[in-house]
Amino acid sequence: MALELRQLRVVKAIADEGSLTVAARRLGMAQPSVSQALAQAERVAGAALFRRGARGALPTPLGEVVIGHARTVLDAMERMTDAVVRHQEDDWPAAVRIGCAPGLLVAHLSVAVPLVAGSDVQITTAAGTAGHLAALAAGRTEAALVTHFPMPGAAAVPEGAEAGGRGALRGAVVAVEPLFAGVSARHHLAGRPEADLAELAGEQWCLPPGSDDDLGAQLTEACRRAGHPVAVRGAEYATALALVREGHAVLPMMPGSRTGSGLVLLPLRGEPLTSATVLYWRAGGPLPEEWIRSLWEHLVRAQRDIVEAVPLYRSWLAGHPYWRTRPRPATLHRPPSTGRASEPQ
How far apart are CA 311 and CA 64, in angstroms? Predict the structure, then answer.
């Protein structure tokens, strides 16, 4: 025998309300029916799911496990029901089209979108931001996941991202991260826990072709503030990695990047270089706000799980705990001047 959806709804309601009486009222059921459904669930689970006392119904350790799975199952059922209704009403695309800059979350989108939307997904990957936003504004895609490199003190989502009414682009910050410098394993700064950007004066920086101008502008301004000009050359990513390994260049890199042999990530003191990953959609478009929020939550969790899996970044975060905070799911989010993202409302 397996737990039924009716029993899972009862278990979840009791956990949410802390009382069989209140749970029955919320579900529109008689209390004896709620008690019976709970007893059936406990027989299937093999032990008590709640302890009842003066403070109400409190989950047992087994109850915590069942409640967690009940929330997941019921949430998935609700999303499936919503997706069926949307498709019946012909207001939902057969496949959600998303433009995405190359990065750590591309693979996750192929899993997260069908999970959240109940639809297939078509992902177009290309460097840069302007092309993805133009495609979104023209209705050729339903969403875009892109990376900005804001100037110090600037908003992670550029000004004007939500200007206008229906059809205007809106953005929500998925993550704000520092950028490290990729250097040769033989570089004299390799192995340092941190280095000042000024210590890289005279180095040649590589930027991949197709990168938006904001990365070059941010690097130029950061080096100016560090007291030296910057030398930049364009190179395909594979070529740039080879130049770095040979000690002929340095490369701005995400802290979650896998480097391979001959190249190491060098954290920069004071976080002079940062990146902001932003999810964009169209106001009044086919993707409702609740769907966007659900996808945003999946991407935030995935970004943290993927990026923080790198031991070097985990170690760096231990000394910079303000980078652990999660971004606010606002339409236009402005991170604090420290570069931190804020807690969701």
Answer: 31
Q: Is 179 left (phi over 0), alpha (psi -120 to 50) or beta?
A: beta
> The whole model's pTM is what?
0.66
pLDDT above 80 (res 267)? yes
Integer Cα distance of 104 and 110 in angstroms: 12
Q: Is 227 exposed, middle or buried (0-12, 13-18, 19+ CB in 10 A)?
A: exposed
pLDDT confidence band for 342 (50 / 70 / 90): very low
Predicted pLDDT at 95: 78
Give me the amino acid identity at 161: A
Give me the mean pLDDT over the 192-198 stretch: 94
Domains in the chain, please, with CATH? 5-87 (1.10.10.10), 92-177+274-324 (3.40.190.10), 180-266 (3.40.190.10)
Cα gap 99→78, rounded to integer Å? 27
Cα separation of 249 and 205, whole Å?
A: 6
Mean pLDDT in residue range 110-136: 81
Secondary structure of 209-245 in the HEC alphabet?
Answer: CCCCHHHHHHHHHHHHHHCCCCEEEECCHHHHHHHHH
Work out the pLDDT band at 71, boundaries 50, 70, 90: confident
Distance CA 206, CA 80 (A): 46
> Residue 170: beta bridge partners?
281
DSSP reduced 3-state for 31 = helix
- Contact yes or no for 129/100 (Cβ under 8 A): no
Judged by DSSP in three states, 181 sits in strand
Give me the torsion for CA of 297, 287, 95, 175, rounded to 10°. Answer: -30
Candidates 323, 303, 330, 336; CA nearest to 155 is: 336
Instruction: Output the CA angle 120-165-297, nearest 5 degrees.
Output: 40
CA distance 12 to 268: 47
What is the maximum alpha-carbon separation in the chain? Answer: 78
Cα–Cα separations (whole angstroms), residue 29 to 6, 21, 32: 11, 9, 8
